[in-house]
Amino acid sequence: MASMADTAKNEDGAALGRPKADFLPALLVPALALVALPLVFDLPAWITLTVAGLAMGLMIFIMASGLTLVFGLMDVLNFGHGAFISLGAFVGTVILLPLSGWTTADSFWLNMAAVVPAILVAMAVSGAVGYAFERVIITPVYGQHLKQILITMGGLIVAEQLIHVIWGPDQIPLTRPTTFRGAFIFGDVAIEKFRLIAVAIGLLVFVAMYMVLNRTRVGLLIRAGVENGEMVEALGYRIRRLFVGVFVAGSALAGLGGVMWALYQETVTAAMGMQVMVLIFIVIIIGGLGSVGGCFIGAMLVGLVANYTGFLAPKLALGSNILLMVLILLWRPQGLYPVARR
Amino acid sequence: MLRSLLSDDLPGNRILAIVLLLILIGLAFAPFLFPGTRSLNVAAKVCVFIVLVASYDLLLGYTGIVSFAHTMFFGIGGYGIAILLAKSGADWTSVGLGTAVALVISVVLAFAIGLFSLRVKAIFFAMITLAVATAFAILASQLSWLTGGEDGLNFRVPEILRPSFSPFEDRVLGVNINGRIITYYLIFCVGAAMFLAMLRIVNSPFGKVLQAIRENDFRAEALGYRTVVYRTVASCLGAAFATMAGVLYALWLRYNGPDTTLSFNIMMDILLMVVIGGMGTLYGAVVGATLFIIAQNYLQDLMGAASQSLQGLPLLPDLLHPDRWLLWLGVLFVLSVYSFPVGIVGKLRQLGGAARR
Q1: End-to-end Cα, chain A, rounded Å
Q2: Which parts of chain B register pLDDT below 50?
Q3: Which segments within A176-322 are labelled E, that is strand?
Q4: How far apart are CA A98 and CA A52, in angstroms?
Q5: Are residues B121 and A162, on separate chains, in Cβ contact within 8 Å?
């Protein structure tokens, strides 16, 4: 996103001698899709895979964006982020399961009437818990990386166990609402409906985030804080407050991602957050720690690669993401869009 | 004699010394003091995990690197001999060859990961190791022709380690000596030797440099030590010891699978043991591993009883449910990172230091 901001303010940028907008990483996504086309060798399958990959990428982006911003702003890496994903999913089931009358109805709007409150409540709860988490777990260990990693890991263990205490040890099956199941068929191309919904929600989040970051005062402060936190503080803004806000928003987004991921997998387990975390870490490393735009592109790449290799060589699916990460880090050791300060 | 055996790194506190001595006696005479399959299992697991946790402490406590790939090396050791013993027959050649191959693979992998990512921040390394370890675990469960997939590998151990083998006609001190007990003593002796070796390493000039890097890597670099090299060597050493621990564990279980050595839960357990026991001192690994594994095996019984007696109250029985033992250790972990990052052993040593002054 840094690059898009650059283009938006090109006039001032040139005057300040800013570096030119960097489009190369963004071109990777279509390039990857084009490379995969001859490999898959089947246009309808390729379209299906591409849409599936983009949908998966957007879901990962929803979960990863908060984490990368938190890191960029305060140099805090929250290994407990996965707990909010699981929490969101479990809170989602609390709303969705009693409303099974609506979710099994064959009406898109009734389905949405069940899913939207589930998402909102899940976001509210994970946001609130995120606030408490920040206060209790993270505040005491600012600026100490080792302790941060350990303490957020500990927080993750405790949170997972508490989820077990509240919701019991078993995984909860969660069926997708009726109208979200199945696929649209255009000729030979089959596109799962849920993937389209995921794409829609993911793009909505991305656009909203882009607008907030680039068109509002708060967004300006956040971007400035990522670039140079000390300077923002010196100008009299309380970056701690900003940070708490970003942390809460990131946790809420993790909750949203958790509901989406739960509907995608159709089961909810306490360990699901930690399982996705691996993908999320890969994404934010690829993107350049702290960069939302890089995170977005990284998520797309990971989603596409996972789906293409899942089709071409299923056994390599997760290894392929590691390989992707290694290749990108060989090209740009700091990630696609390195954040200036580091 | 004792001083040189412990590389001049004495416990430094009377209570700690007594605790360590008790653990040593308990482990050395476990088959005679606590007869029974379950307690022997616990004792063997303690031996293995002391080595594993101490090797992790080499990284986390002494060098200040957070790696999440330690179970990967543990698993490589386990799979090394499991594959060899299962495919090419149960003899000592397979054990030796399997161990050697596993060690080479582990060290090469650790070297590659180290060179690739140890130049950068701790957080970066943590994430990369997490990703690599997960990929490895998935790989191990996918390559079922080699590793047995999710089911893992059952294998036969060399003759003298089998339960049916018994060298003596009569009981010794009221215990029937069989292959299991011989296996236990093999694990105990190799484990003790490796522990002493690690103690030697951390108290050598090399170990001092590692601690300097932990305290202030910039300054260590400025003093002329190539920190990347030291960090990479430390991570290779840690990997090698973890591999050996994996070999011992697989020998004891006569089985290796993703859940016993590779799973992320084990990584969490190791982290808990190191931190609760005390980072930056190998005795912490001893205390942490012993405490944790005893809790894992016996705390559940206690909690079950407590949960029963609190039946009818809201929430409390659920919080004390036997399966929730990890919750309490997690809380203990968080508290210990905050209030005593030096762990139990460090705390005891501080007390000892204060008393002497």
Answers
A1: 17
A2: 355-357
A3: 183-186, 189-192, 267-268
A4: 30
A5: no
Q: Contact B242/B73 with Cβ under 8 angstroms?
A: yes
pLDDT value at A108 more than 80: no
Contacts of A158 in chain B (CB under 8 A): 327, 330-331, 334
Q: Which residues of B touch A155 (CB under 8 A)?
A: 334
d(CA A80, CA B127): 13
- pLDDT tens-digit profile of B267-314? 888 988 888 888 888 888 898 899 888 888 887 777 777 777 776 666
Residues 6 or more apart whose CB falls under 8 angstroms from that of A140 comprise A151, B338
CATH: 1.25.40, 3.30.70, 3.40.50, 1.10.3470. Which one for A2-6+22-331? 1.10.3470
Torsion of CA B153, B297, B327, B214, to 10 degrees: -70
Between B14-28 and B343-356, two packed helices, what is the crossing angle to 10 degrees?
A: 140
Half-sphere CA count of B199, side-chain side, radius 13 A: 22
Structural domain for B313, as ranges: 2-356
Q: Could you give the maximum distance between any two Cα atoms of chain B, in Å?
A: 65
Helix (H, G, I), strand (E, B) or coil at A258: helix
- Closest-CA distance, A280 to chain B, in angstroms, reads 10
Looking at beta carbons, which residues of chain A come within 8 Å of B121?
A: 145, 342
The residue type found at B301 is D
| Core vs surface per residue B221-233: b (16+ CB within 10 A) or e | eeeebebeebbbb
CATH number at residue B46: 1.10.3470
- Angle in degrees, CA B316, B321, B322, rounded to 5: 150
A289: chain B residues, CB-CB within 8 Å = 123-124
* Interchain contact A341–B (C-beta under 8 A): no
**Residue B245 near residue B165 (C-beta atoms within 8 A):** no
* Domain positions in chain A: 2-6+22-331
State ipTM: 0.75
- Find the helix or strand (DSSP H, E) in which A172 lies: strand A172-173
How many CA atoms lie within 13 Å of B4's alpha carbon, on the beta-carbon side? 1
Nearest to A158 among B121, B135, B331 (CB): B331
Q: Does A157 touch chain B (CB under 8 A)?
A: yes
pLDDT digits (tens, 9 = 90+) for A43-56: 888 888 888 888 88
User: Which site among B60, B123, B130 would you substitute to test the A interface, given the most A Cβ atoms closer than 10 Å to its Cβ?
Assistant: B123
Question: Dihedral (C-alpha) B65, B66, B70, B73: value to the nearest 10 degrees?
Answer: -40
Do the Cβ atoms of B177 and B167 come closer than 8 Å?
A: yes
Domain count, chain B: 1
Shortest distance between the Cα of A156 and any Cα of chain B, in A, equals: 9
B-facing residues of A in 42-61 (CB < 8 A) are none
Pick among A76, A144, A153 to test the B interface (most B CBs inside 10 A): A153
